[in-house]
Amino acid sequence: MPNSYRILVLSDLHAVVDDTSGRSASLMDYEQESGPRGLLSLCHRAVMEEFESSVDLVVVCGDIADKASSGALEKAWSDLQWLAAELGVPLVAAAGNHDYDSRGQHHALPNRTLMTLRPYFPFGEANSRNKYFAEHHAIYVDDHAIVITVNSAAHHGYVFEGAKEHEHGRFTDLLPDQIGESLDSLPPLPPIKVLITHHHLNQLPDFDTEERSASVGHESVLRKLSEYGSWVVIHGHKHRGWIQYASGTGDAPPLISSSSLSADFGGGSFEDKVRHQFHVVSMPYDEPRPGGDGLTGARGHVTSWTHSRLGWKIAGAEEHLPGLTGFGWKVNLEELADRLRASVAADGYLTWDELLALDPRLDFLTFDDLSRLIGWLERGTPRISAKLTGRGRLFQLALEG
What we know:
alpha/beta, Purple Acid Phosphatase, chain A, domain 2, Arc Repressor Mutant, subunit A, 10 helices
């Protein structure tokens, strides 16, 4: 995508420094001397092979360490800084529940290690760190993008109404006004607008549905952000790549759930549904941003890599997230299937380029909506079959029989 802003997304590293964590199967295991840096070095190589012009920013969506290991957090933070330096771009992070010593295992202050990291967490100078921990957000701005990092783990270590705060995320009720004040103090905002955080905002479908750790209070923050344009939200925590849209108003933003880079999945049914992945989110900044006809202002593509014995490879069509998917078009899939069926029936088949000429918005369908669209096409009459690339993108629709 020409003139796009690219964000390398890493999340849920769950780095360990010794076997006392009980999770030594993490790929970010500092008992294996070359393991963590080698893993990130291969990540760097994979990104540069795909994008010769590199990326514009690295974001890390929390759970850098496992079980509040201060040694692992310090080492992994250093290695993440190394990766960003190799790419020649800044790094912006969000704190995860495992980065907080919520149960007081090591320190009375749950965020003590985060506060003492150098370079400063979540980015930049001490004032960004202080704002992040005092007002639970900090803002990174460059020529093309604004990134708000929100601390959904800020209340961890407390108990409220009898419930332990570390069991879920929280966006404090002060946050909408605080973010509004921060945004009002800035010059006109750049076209790309992103919020990163750790905890998910909406539950992910058909996966770990009994847990209740989603962030409380995020709805008011999203309503406030909508006053400043169209945003995309990137989060971690669930270890599963997914794309959906926030609940609420018609301009509710896309939610991109990052897979885990390197956590121990623990085996069982959980492991069957997740993969170690990282992603690059690409968003155009040189075209009109307002949404319309089902398009959100925040739209683009996600490229994903999956870890294998050979290192990082572009994810396959069957994976979540697949190698390439879009986001940003909210569409009635039944109506779209009827339109496409009529066009394919008239011509016999349509290539991807012909489909885009018919409706360019197809480029911004999520992989999940694409899958459901194919279901509509295959169930209807006449039956339409779809062919996908190895990366999971549609390249042909054809009339069957």
